[in-house]
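Following the same procedure, sequence and fold were stored together, as reproduced here:

>
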Amino acid sequence: MEFGKLARLASVRFSLLLLIVFPILWAYAPGIFKVYGFYLVSGYQVPALSLLSSMEFLLPLLIAITAAELLGLEMSHGTLPTVLLRPVTRSQWLLAKLLVAAVYPFAVLAVFFLISLLAGAPYGFGSFVGGTGLGQAGLLGQGIMQPAAALREVAGAYIVAAYSLVPISLLAMLFTVLFMNAAGGALATLSVLIFMKLLVVFPGIEPYLLTTQLDAYVKPVAHLGWVVALIALYCAAFAAVSVVLFERKDF
C-alpha cells in the first residue's frame, strides 16, 4: 500500500520526467568536448556521465523531496490521525514509510540507468577505446574496454550510488517528522547537505561526512566495506531517531 502511495506522488512523476530528459541531453549535448575534453564513443559512457553530473545535487534533491512528501502528504491532508487509528502501532506505520523511503533510491537509480542506456544506444555497446568515467582510468581509459567490463563497472557504480542516497532519504523523513511539514523536511535536509559540503575544510572529519559518501561510487574514501558500514550506521541512526520522535508527537 505504501509503495502505491509513493507511485502517486507528484514529486515522483516530476522526477521521472527529469530522469528521462537528463540522459538524452547528455547523449547529444554539443559542448561535451569543451567541458570534458573527449567525445562520446560508447553507449556505456552516457549512464556514466548522467550519474557523474547528477550525484552532486540533482539526485539528492529529488530523493529528499519525495521522501519528505511521502510522509508530509499525510500531514497536509489531515489524514494522519485517522491513519493512526488502524490496528498498527505508530512505530510499525512509520517503519513501513521508512522502508519505502529506503528502497526508493534504488528504484530511481534503476530507472535512471535503463533510460541512460537507451539514450546511449545510438553509440553502440561494443568494445571501445577509453573508459566509462566510473573506473580508476576515468573517461580516457587504458586501451580497449570490453562490453562486459564496461557494463559491470557502470552497473556497480549505480548500485553504490543508490545505496549512498538511502541515508538522505531517511534524513528527509526524520526532518519531516521533526517539523511535521514536507517542505520543511526537504529544505532542512538540503541545508544539512550544503553545510556538510562546507566542512571539507576539516580533513579530520571529512571521511565521515554523509556528503563525502556520495562520491563512493567513483572514489570511496576508504575500503568499500568501511563505506557501506558507515552508511548503514547513518541509516540506522536516522531511522531510530525518526521513530522515537514520532512516538512522542501529539496528534
Strands lie at 128-129, 144-145. The CA atoms of residues 37 and 140 lie 9 Å apart. The first helix runs from residue 2 to 7.
